[in-house]
Design brief:
single chain, two-stranded parallel ribbon, flat, Protein Binding, DinI Protein, Chain A, mainly alpha
């Protein structure tokens, strides 16, 4: 019985050794040939890069819309701040009346209900303004991206690129050669279209 187990272990060891040599043994191609094949494949692919942050920063249309949205947001915040201060004054006056005892329980209840409605209206208005600005920003960003993509499709066809990769903050592309950057070409097309 011991001899049978010994023979089985030797056969299994030989089988594992064979599989190891078959899988990790020398291949028909050397590492230099593998690298050469990779270089040939990579050189056949024509890639360009576009920095979206630069496009947004230098696009006249994008900057104008951004300034408009920032002004609208500042105006909305100012209006809400004024309204909030008015509400705070009303609330302080109510609390002063409560502390001094110059208000009946019925008046207190009515005032609390009115102040609660005002607070709800204020919060709803604040949420509505935020939502509107966000929706408008999203719509503009989508339209801008669509226009840029159309230009990229045209450049891809015109210049024979296989791929155009978007770079910028948050992009998985960390480094690339400046000779493959076509941001300025795209920016010229976007700014010409805006005029």
């Amino acid at each position: 019985m011991k001899n049978a187990l010994l023979i089985l272990n030797i056969l299994l060891l030989l089988a594992v050794g064979y599989l190891f040599m078959d899988k990790f043994g020398s291949s028909s191609e050397t590492p230099a040939q593998d690298e050469q094949n990779a270089v040939e494949t990579a050189s056949a692919i024509k890639i360009a890069f576009v920095n979206i942050d630069t496009l947004q920063a230098k696009s006249t249309d994008f900057q104008a819309k951004r300034a408009e949205l920032e002004k609208r947001q500042a105006d909305a915040e100012k209006a809400l701040e004024t309204r909030g201060k008015s509400f705070q004054r009303e609330l302080a006056a109510y609390q002063k009346k409560i502390q001094s005892g110059n208000i009946t329980p019925k008046e207190a209840q009515e005032t609390e209900a009115r102040l609660a409605r005002k607070e709800q209206e204020f919060n709803a208005e604040q949420e509505r303004l935020s939502r509107e600005l966000l929706q408008e920003t999203d719509a503009f960003n989508a339209a801008f991206t669509k226009r840029v993509k159309e230009h990229l499709e045209n450049l891809k066809a015109e210049l024979g690129y296989d791929a155009i990769i978007m770079t910028g903050l948050g992009s998985p592309v960390l480094v690339y050669s400046p000779e493959f950057d076509i941001t300025d070409k795209v920016l010229d097309l976007v700014n010409k279209e805006e005029k």
